[in-house]
């Protein structure tokens, strides 16, 4: 194992080193820091060109300049390293990277998490309904999304998701035909998803259509979009739904102790809703994280208290439900500032550029909402594209596992379908995904260039493209060294994760 | 039993909730508001000292225009307008050229320290390079300026007009004015010395570790007057780099304002800068908006959509057909098209042994001139305007002057008399006749250098090739992405590129057309032009200056130096919730009249009615 690790690290370092050389030469070839001066008609142009030539060592051959740069990089080994400076802004590349990596992470973490969760869920649903209308529709949709160009999706999202939605908010009522159309589509999706015989499908269709229509009518007629809230009643109803859903997936409804613990945490959550309103005005990130920890602790206690032969099952169910309820309470409080936030932005709350509204003087909740209104579009745009690949992978992977002998054995010995799918098939189906995720994260770190640029986020991609356009070589190299390292490490992590999860793989080979 | 216990706990919580609800309702969130405008810009601010060679960028200049007052500014004609509430510039004598700069009584920095002679003196000592010793040294690894042993002000203006002022200026009027005496005449004395970009007292306080502002200024003045390089060296180091920042520094003295606004927020990661009205501003350019936020985004289409979505109020993106089309489809937005400071032109090469070089014809200068003229007569300038520029700027016209920006003083007179009318319309027959008269065999190969990836220039090349082809020229595509470094290399016969005008300086064009000019890539040498520029250097009457420029241009056009084509199109768009926004030709472009921007409803209604 150790030899494998050392060997892989060494070869990765060599690859990285060689590619930095190639990249440095390419960057040098592509950029001309003197270009804008050549067009300048200032009297002292010559003097300026000379200054810049000396500043950037432009009279030194690029190969030598590469070694100077490498020397700065090697300096990190004894703590005196430098990645150079941007000559345009006099900013250390290391500083620029620190800021840019932070912004990019903010952007991609949520998008990646959501893509994994939704992608895997939909993929599994699709695999379980193999060769049904639902499966074909998902396959079609995911290939469609997969092939959409980011810049196009992003611009459309801005046009409809931000500008269109904000225009809609001026008079947020859904017309009769819109209401009927959306409800019918929702009914179709649900009936295809639930499946079963014709009668069951029809019932599902009717119930889903009616429910959607009722919800839409409610939000439309009460002006809910202008001043949205959940309130304790909705939190209780939704929380109970979460409790049942989680129990079905986690232990099955037969495990009454698990069900009771889940329902109990919902009750506690609803009871705490009002007192929490007095705590929330003093919220900080740490307070919220603290409350989340308390939530998990309470759930653990509740699950433990219901006891039974397998306490872990109750605790797990209670904890998952508790997180769901906590999220609802959090969302409810964020919604409460929607009204004033919307007023502040002239009733155009959904943003198209940047990571935050400049100079917004609000408390924790206003700033949280502000972040969300800025995150929603770029996240959706990233999500749509990576969601598609996760759907495909998890569907394929689950189908492969379901066809294996041990699954047939599990069914033969009389296990319920839930246990077969959730316990025996699902976990094994996740192994190949575990190797894709690190690579995907590496790709998305460097690959969000277009998304960042269109949505005006000053992350890694933006830093790269700005520096390249500005004939500024060292930030480009800084970008490359970070993304290159992440890519190489992600490959290594993927290999190790695979070996760790699947005992059939040996890394010593 | 267990259930009962849980019930008890639930009851307890419920009771607690009831008790709490009896108290006042929970505190609600609130957002502070004031009058604000948000402007979209492409490149982020990075240095508060735009006088350094590094900080000398439009991105900094536009922000500094709002925060630091000046003796004068360019309006949208463009013409130089004086702001006497900041101070005055006065020429005392022509020979030797003596110019007096006086700061107005009330002008002060935002920490209430007055702007005075010390600030002017610091600006002069930096821009003139008077005490600069040797060459600046740069760190070999990082390329940054290192703390060098020598004293060196790394100013962008080094080598410019102020290098002619070697005598330390006199201070008068209770320390409110300085007088510059030039060693040699310099016609652009009006724009030679910038208003102080950074406060002298802060520079001196930081460099010399002095607490009191007045004391620091006195030390600075003494050091400059006595040429005390020991003291000046730390001053230069602070001046060179202390004002470079991309996030708001902890020390507010690094961004003191003497103009209408002062920086209140700056974030590199969130890509914006916020300026708040300067309480201590005493000048005439009183703004109507409490805060102006400039948000940075390099994607013009993103700016258009953000404008449509109300996140930006004013944008000034690069004018492309897509942007203009998109803007026209947006409701509630006013779009103004106009010109920018850069102009497109073709220069012919005189010294590469090509078709425009007299040497090709055995030194027959007349023959070469006729070939040049024939070529230029076949350049379809109006067609370029009609097909490429007018979709972006309906008012676009051919630029007919090699030295003056359209709309600036003297442009019309010069154009009327400079002989550019010969090239007004494509004259294929005339070109053919000239070639026949010259007795050259056609077709003549001409290589045209231009920026290959620049779609607009590639389109221009297509139009040119067709038209000059009719006249007997074979226009070879010399498009190259490294065109900038190829200028002057003699590998092309004609070059298509742009010159950017940063000021209306009279002598700016000398570098392009003098036989020894730094920007003369064509190998053009005309003794008369050189003489006229010599004369221009000692001419201070505007009327005479323009007459000389007209004579220079007459030579240029008659010699077939090249043709000017168009001013780059610009576009400004603003939401109808703000009035008073106007496009500006020269830097600081749309910001030029920021004090007239008015987001109040009454003003907006008025502008709609009017």
Verbal overview:
The complex is a heterodimer of chains A (509) and B (610). Chain A is an all-alpha fold. Among the domains of chain A are: 2-98 and 444-508, no CATH class; 173-222, no CATH class. Chain A has helices spanning 2-30, 35-39, 45-55, 62-74, 93-128, 133-146, 150-169, 176-194, 198-221, 231-250, 256-279, 285-306, 311-336, 338-344, 364-402, 405-412, 417-447, 449-455, 460-469, 473-501. With 610 residues, chain B is an alpha+beta fold. Chain B has three domains: 3-44 and 259-332 and 576-609, 3-Layer(aba) Sandwich (D-Maltodextrin-Binding Protein, domain 2), CATH 3.40.190.10; 87-194 and 199-241, Dipeptide-binding Protein, domain 1 (Alpha-Beta Complex); 341-567, Dipeptide-binding Protein, Domain 3 (Dipeptide-binding Protein, domain 3). Helix content of chain B is 33%, strand content 17%. Chain B contains 18 helices and 16 strands. A ten-stranded mixed sheet of chain B has the order 8-9-10-1-11-16-12-15-13-14, sandwiched between helices. Chain B has a four-stranded antiparallel sheet with strand order 4-5-7-6, with helices on one face. Chain B has a two-stranded antiparallel sheet with strand order 2-3. Classes of the chains: A mainly alpha (509), B alpha+beta (610). The interface between A and B is large, with 91 and 92 residues.
The CATH topology of the largest domain in chain B comes to Dipeptide-binding Protein, domain 3
Please tally the β strands of chain B and state the result: 16
Outline the low-pLDDT stretches of chain B. none
What oligomeric state do the depicted chains represent?
Answer: heterodimer
Structural class by SSE content of chain A: mainly alpha
CATH architecture field of the largest domain in chain B? Roll
